[in-house]
Amino acid sequence: MKTSKKYLAFALMSVLMLSALTGCSNKNEGDSAKFDTAREINVLTREDGSGTRGAFIELFGIEQKNEAGEKIDYTADTAAVTNSTSVMMTTVAGDLYSIGYISLGSMNDTVKAIQIDGCEATIENIKNGTYKIARPFNIATKDGLSDTAQDFIDFIMSADGQAVIEENGYISVSDAGSYSGEMDSGKIIVAGSSSVTPVMEKLKEAYLERNPGVTIEIQQSDSSTGMSDTIDGTCDIGMASRELKDSEMEKGLTATVIAMDGITVIVNNDCPINNLTSEQVKDIFMGNAVRWSEISQ
């Protein structure tokens, strides 16, 4: 009888252990299976006028010339449009099947960065040329710039300003010496790109510590609006997360590169996709690949 009870106890323990192991296995299977590759890819892009969009479609070959030699943006009509970096990140963070793109300097742990052609989007890889999806951060000005605005630009390009740029995850471009200016008063209006805005806010903060009597107003919009505002004289300094267009330069704008930045392709943190080729990204955003099952890993 005792032997029978011992056997029963052992058998019961074995069943419980097996159940526990099976439960873990099912949970893991459930975690891996919750990503349904048959689902459509929810493509997110930026609005027309966005410098990030302009650089992205150029770098991935989504912008192509037609027979007349005109540049055409072939982003799929089905792509959902977001009007800022923060909206892009929030949308991707809340949608398992979405894919988008943002500035490398804006990356945080709410979304996951995808490797492109097996290369991670890092400052080091941009500097050594292995990660090629990179673009300049430009500021634009016109003749007749105020002394205060010029002093702020001098700070941005100084060793002090470039240190702020590096500290915030961007790539410095100037080897100028330390900032030595001093302004007692004045107001500067800076307008444009939502991608450049975060680092510009940090530059503003550092500059005002040295020049507390100055007022700097930063108006976030997009690169094209920033250039238009500078041309119209409604702001002193325009921000663009792309190269300036010939048409903008012809209207009197002068561009200054203040930093380099990568563009990061992002997905939801629970998405199992970790690497895409440049061609796969192009196919996704042009609408040639519409389901995750069409992206081989």
Number of domains: 2
- The CATH architecture of the largest domain comes to 3-Layer(aba) Sandwich
Beta percentage is 15-25%
Give the radius of gyration.
25 Å
Question: Could you say what the CATH topology of the largest domain is called?
Answer: D-Maltodextrin-Binding Protein, domain 2
Compute the number of strand runs: 13
Instruction: List low-pLDDT spans.
Output: 1-32
Distance between the termini: 58 Å
Structural class: alpha/beta
Broad CATH class of the largest domain? Alpha Beta
Residues in helix, %: 25-40%
- Count of DSSP helices? 10
Shape: globular
Order of helices and strands: HEHEEEHEEEHEHHEHEHEHEEH
Q: What report would you give on this structure?
A:
This protein has 297 residues and is of the alpha/beta class. The chain folds into two domains: 42-134 and 263-294, Periplasmic binding protein-like II (D-Maltodextrin-Binding Protein, domain 2); 135-261, D-Maltodextrin-Binding Protein, domain 2 (3-Layer(aba) Sandwich). 38% of the residues lie in helices and 22% in strands. The chain has helices at 2-33, 51-59, 85-93, 123-127, 147-157, 159-167, 197-210, 223-232, 246-250, 278-286, and strands spanning 42-46, 63-65, 71-73, 80-82, 98-103, 112-113, 115-116, 134-141, 187-193, 215-221, 237-240, 254-267, 275-276. Strands 1, 4, 5, 6, 8, 9, 10, 11 and 12 form a nine-stranded mixed β-sheet that branches. Strand 2 and strand 3 form a beta hairpin. Helix 5 crosses helix 6. The longest helix has 32 residues, at 2-33. The N and C termini lie far apart (58 Å). Residues 1-32 have low confidence and may be disordered. Residues 1-22 form the signal peptide. Pfam families: PBP_like_2. InterPro entries: PBP_domain, Phosphate_ABC_transporter. Keywords: Lipoprotein, Palmitate, Phosphate transport, Signal, Transport. Its main location: membrane.
